[in-house]
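Q: Could you fold this chain for me?
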Amino acid sequence: MGNIIQNHKYIVLSLAIILFSGSLFIALFINIQENTRLESTVQENLLWGISQSEPDLLRFLNVLDRFAAGDAKIHREDVVTRFDILWSRIDVLLKGALGDEFNKISGVNANAKKAMDILRRTETQVMSLQRGDGDTYRKMLLEYQGLAQDLHASILKTASYTNYKTLEQRNHTRDLLQQSAFLFTAVIISGGLLIFLLFREMRTSDKLLIRSEHSKEELHRQGGRLQELVATRTAKLLATKLEAENANRAKTEFLASMSHELRTPLNAIIGFSQVMVEGVFGDLKHPKYSGYAADINDSAQHLLEVINDILDLSKVEAGEIDIEETDVDIAELLKDSFLLVRTHGEAKCLNLAAGVLPGFPYLRADARLLRQVIINLLSNSIRFTPNGGDVTASARLDDYGRILLNVMDTGIGIAADDIAEALEPFGQIRHSPETTHGGTGLGLPLSKKLVELHGGTLMIDSVVGTGTAVTIRFPAERTVRPD
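A: Sure. Below is the predicted structure, expressed as structure tokens.
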């Protein structure tokens, strides 16, 4: 009887080994496929990231050329926007996971650093370029000679590298699958042979008919233990499945939201620009083109805002933004910021005003990041302030020598219970089921994180129906008093 029980155990163990090996092989196959997909995604991101730099450069040079030639349709804001897009594109190639991958490709990192050095050298000239200033433009053009060829060469090198890595990954995956299949086959054959031998031994034994109460009790106890194990394992699997479904649902909702935000302006850009290119209504002097051009501009600006906010928030959360500190003139900063949002404010007949006392101290900070914060806050105020309202920005010193920046409006306001949600990524406060003011819900969270990078704080005071006041407080050590 002991031999019979022992044989049963061996059979169960053999079957368990076979089933476990099969499950392990399936899990390994799924894992290999997922790793292959992730590696392919990384290679695609590499190629996409570098391939966008060349057209971004050409678009910037086109806008710069038209502005320097005196084209009235091109404004300084267009030049600055294209320059910032090109800057962000090159900067991504040097930092984070993409930067680490590009370091592995000979010459690509060097070309990206060369491009970034050129952008830094020409940043001041771009920001101060006057319409029709051909001399300055020609000097700048000398800096950009050869940059397009370098970027194109980098694209070709990256494409060759990604093709090589993809082929290498496929070969590696094929080898792993072959080895796994061989091991699984060996386990199946060994397990089947063992089961066959055990069955043959049981058939020749005359003890198969002997059953004892002890054997029944032991079998019952083992069955109960197995049921407990199965129940525990099932509960864990159900919990894991629920977590995966929740994560997948959140990802789906996010992608759906972003897909809508990105596709709507893109469709407008593609549709209206196609009409203009084909001259459906006649030559470019047709009055309908001015309306289409405005729609294209609005859609492109919205798309740019969405993309930039997502990229910037991701870089801040990953700790990939470096602060380039300078002594910032607050008065000039507010003036430049209002210039960039003035068109939207005038469209709503808003009263826009900035107030800084003469001789006000400078602020030790990153001018570009600080300008982004101010523009985000001003854009929010303009968006949520009714026609004819007021939007103001000011600066002052508190009793401890800390610089305080204030952005105030007479808009619709935020309920106290909703302020925390407004400061969360993608937190959008809907004041009524029928009204919405657009946006991605990234402006305030991004501004708060950029301020915190400087050691400062961002606070919101708001009254529904009256308006909102945002106060930014910087540490006293960032105050630079004039000599």
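A (continued): The domain at 2-203 is CATH 1.20.120 (Four Helix Bundle (Hemerythrin (Met), subunit A)).
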